[in-house]
Write a structure and sequence with these properties.
Layout: E1 21-25, E2 28-31, H1 32-38, H2 40-43, H3 53-75, H4 82-107, H5 112-121, E3 127-128, E4 131-139, H6 142-152, H7 157-171, H8 175-178, E5 183-187, H9 194-202, E6 213-215, E7 218-228, E8 231-232, H10 235-264
Antiparallel strand pairs: 1-2, 3-8, 4-5, 4-7, 6-7
Amino acid sequence: MKKISLVAAALVASVTLNAATVATLNGKNISDTEVNDAFEPMLRGQEFKNLPEQQKKALINQYIAQQLFLEDAKKQNLDKDPLYKEELEKVKDAILLKVYQEKIFDTIKVDASKVKAYYDQNKNEFVKPARVKARHILVESEKEAKDIIAELSNLKGKDLENKFSQIAKEKSIDPGSAAQGGELGWFDQSNMVKPFTDAAFSLKNGEITKTPVKTNFGYHIILKENSQAREQVKFDDVKKGIENRLKLAELQKIMAEKGRALSQNAKVEYK
């Protein structure tokens, strides 16, 4: 039976797809599912695969670092250290309570009509926002930004993309994207600061900003590569997430009732 993480109460409203390899570490594949599971509480209901490319890369790197630290700890036999054993004992009760709740969760059944009714009544919850795929070049001065725009102004298509990528690698002061030719991947209006998203969303695909975009980071030149309109997520793609959400609500009721019943038969003295 499928388990849930009760730490991440906001359940993901999407179907589970086959795991995809996102990196390898010393010849061993790392899947998007592994990274998603490792950072599930941090993601707060989002899915790793739907994050902007920069965020995905950061989480992959963080996951790789954790695995390397674990390998190093095992080489030092720290899993046999008394401190490790002491800390392990402390978390056993927390794990037991988690299993206790998950066993109850697995017994809960939700009628399919209630799942569909929740979707119909809360469609605004299940919307993919409009997104943009873009590159940027970040520089310190407005003059340098204007000079770069002038250098790119007569280029189109692949010529524009190639030259933009080259300049980003050479001049952009954003090291994370500069190495990728300014590539930022997909993002929606909540992922970037407002002046940047306003400019990026106003462009046509394949177009660059005609004037520098000023933010707290400096001056940006933006190349809009692609775009996706706001989209209603289909019921079939979210019904499992809705079912789990309704099951979790029922679990909370069951736990409250069980807690009251157990308390009635317990001898409690407050000192």
